[in-house]
Amino acid sequence: xxxxxxxxxxxxxxxxxxxxxxxxxxxxxxxxxxxxxxxxxxxxxxxxxxxxxxxxxxxxxxxxxxxxxxxxxxxxxxxxxxxxxxxxxxxxxxxxxxxxxxxxxxxxxxxxxxxxxxxxxxxxxxxxxxxxxxxxxxxxxxxxxxxxxxxxx
Amino acid sequence: xxxxxxxxxxxxxxxxxxxxxxxxxxxxxxxxxxxxxxxxxxxxxxxxxxxxxxxxxxxxxxxxxxxxxxxxxxxxxxxxxxxxxxxxxxxxxxxxxxxxxxxxxxxxxxxxxxxxxxxxxxxxxxxxxxxxxxxxxxxxxxxxxxxxxxxxxxxxxxxxxxxxxxxxxxxxxxxxxxxxxxxxxxxxxxxxxxxxxxxxxxxxxxxxxxxxxxxxxxxxxxxxxxxxxxxxxxxxxxxxxxxxxxxxxxxxxxxxxxxxxxxxxxxxxxxxxxxxxxxxxxxxxxxxxxxxxxxxxx
Lengths: 153, 298
Known about the structure:
heterodimer; A: 153 residues; alpha+beta; four-stranded antiparallel β-sheet; 4 helices; B: 298 residues; alpha/beta; seven-stranded mixed β-sheet; globular
């Protein structure tokens, strides 16, 4: 039978994480599913949670007056969703909407921050993993800023 | 290492490489707002009435290019984007960005164009037999890769997994949309398409840069040949991603683009370090270019 701990250990984000830390983190985790079209979070919401996507697809959207919602990124199996919980003021900056049935592991941000305060090694381990995500998303954003496929003289 | 052009293809090229042959536009298909696919067929020579070549077509290898001449306007290098097993249908996908390409995109059925070629090196589709194949295309970079995909699918049993990763700016900028949908429906081909941004009501696929698809795809990294074509920056980051997952440098192939003029290595316009893109490329094995690739001085 799949336990929460085994689901966490299987997820690529927690690959090779010390099992002791998996047990600690599991205290703050639960499962959550979303139907296609469900908003998982909205821009401006307090960033009280983050998610690991086990299965499904989520779009990060921003609403532009006069243009409607614009999808800026999609996240799917194996991805981490949400990092605003790490940095103040802990506010969501985009809408997150399920594009299909999406199964996630959801984490209570306050609980995780508490664990990180009491177990700095766990905190460092988590921050290294999130830093990797920040780096990848920053690089992807910069590539899009270059407008690679546009016509340049 | 530079790929040697197949002798039978070279033979056609060297007969008179600077003399354009007349081809008639048979069909024009609008792909996107600024990109058109031209289907050409050999036309009789206006003076002698002779047809080009014994078979009346142009045999080419996937990845090669032609010089298309719009009479009175100019000549540009354009990748061949058709099926190499159908030499009588010479197909090019052209994006209207300059005077010549804008004129080419306005060509109508029956317009006579001059064609020189085929020129250059080709994708290593035969050498890659036995491997998994990952094709990474960005924007109009899918055009020179389409002949390789036709070849791979026509010889499907010779390869392991075949993965096509394709990125474009917006959903309406995707090339060959109908074919993409057909390819996605195949059980023996993995196709992942992404766009840089989209509205939720117009697109249900991935949103993000094409490089993010690499780590999601499943292939045997140590036995994979990767074919990459797109803007140079996109190729640089794609190579980083492929290296990160373990694909060796000598299994990465990319198609380079420079200012090709004569197409036979005489004029020097397309010199890139010690090579000429037109003659030694456009397809290069990455480890042969690694030292100069991405260097701003070159």
